[in-house]
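Predict the holo structure. Ligand: succinic acid.
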Amino acid sequence: MNKHEEFGLKDKHLVKHFSYINGSWHSSETQISVTNPANGNVIAKVSNAGSVETELAVKAAKDALTMWSDKSANERAVLLRNWFNLMMENQDDLGRILTLEQGKPLAEAKGEIAYGAAFIEWFAEEGKRVYGDTIPGPSNDKRIIVVKEPVGVVASITPWNFPNAMIARKAAAALAAGCTFVARPATETPLSALAMAELAERAGIPAGVFNVVVGDDARAMGSVLTQHPDVAKFTFTGSTPVGKTLISQCATTVKKVSMELGGNAPFIVFNDADIDSAVQGAIQSKYRNAGQTCVCTNRIFVQQDVLKAFTEKFSNAVAQLTIGEGLTDGVNIGPMISSKAVAGVDKLVSESIAAGAKLLLGGKRDKSGDNFYQPTILTDVTNDMPIAKNEIFGPVSPIISFENEAEVIAMANDTEYGLAAYFYARDIGRIWRVAAALEYGMIGINEGLISNAAAPFGGVKQSGNGREGSKYGLDDYLEIKYLCMGGLDQ
Ligand code: SIN
């Protein structure tokens, strides 16, 4: 059986084995193996690019910049729209590639393709609305004019948890703004990024505008992308510690940066909440991608009067989740990305049990394989336990009880993170108070799924800066230029 039959694709040419630089596929001397996290099987070998290829990609992006930024917003929109159409036409194949390299269930993987494509569609349109301003000058002979221009070459480093959408929401905004782009996807999940490059080429996006470099030397490639003088902007999605290092590297050339970093999302259920909808929201926001998203619920706070009812209904719902390999019908929870990631989650669970938490459900590796962890619920958790202090990034729900609003707000905000928060309540006064008091960039109110192309995704505090998606998402790829026009009364 050859590799493509194993993938089961309609279009085998979507599986690429080389970096995509300046419109061509580049081989390197060594290769990296891409494995299926569900079973450890090698599904593809991809050329292992390093700093040399990364420099070539930056050069290609720089050389293509004037040609691309000189195009009208409309011309760019047509090409982006083609890219969007091709992504959706190939949604089944792209979903299979994504499941095989990342592990998430196929329905979720196809959902990610639609989610990623939605950013391309959104920014294809939004790029036409890059408005400036005219401002009355300080005297009658002057006018102040504000225009917006593309920042230039943009470089990105993206994670394995959303191999398609994290690239799409950065690249789409950058390209729509008139910037050119170099993507460095996670070593674990290069195939989705390379398939996007293949479709960008088919869409007619010119050589050098969208480049993808794949390699395992994150440090060397990252150094080029964060320190090359021709890169004007650097954008990263990943952990807060790595983000801090990358920001400091970007400081050497004073790059514009946007950072989408870690989270420790509180999910608060007040006494007046609709419990069934809170349970549904908690399942969605906790167990999406086996708990491996930055906006996943990390701590569930439940007010005492509804603690019993919520916990019972929630544990019944979690017990229904089916764990298994992502291509199997009906699976809700796929593997985690690695055995090391499973060990990290298991350690948080056992340390918290040792500190007094009680195990209600799960709590161990699953028989499905080394990378599978059972959907888990811990009760009697306190906000100072390891499971509450750390970003779990796995399918574990710690439940913490609380008495009143002030107490829960203090606990929810007691973290260096500030990405997403969720709460369920019906009292309108409480809804406004709590929304204002939570120190987070995004808040789901009676809603567990908040990510979409029309909304500004991003955090405060050590969860990062900048926004992705929405009309605000373009600003990160634009510079403001002020023109002072004088001598108007002569
Ligand atoms: C992330 O985990 O970084 C992104 C999650 C999302 O876009 O919803």
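Residues 110 and 319 are 24 Å apart (CA to CA). The chain has 15 helices and 20 strands.
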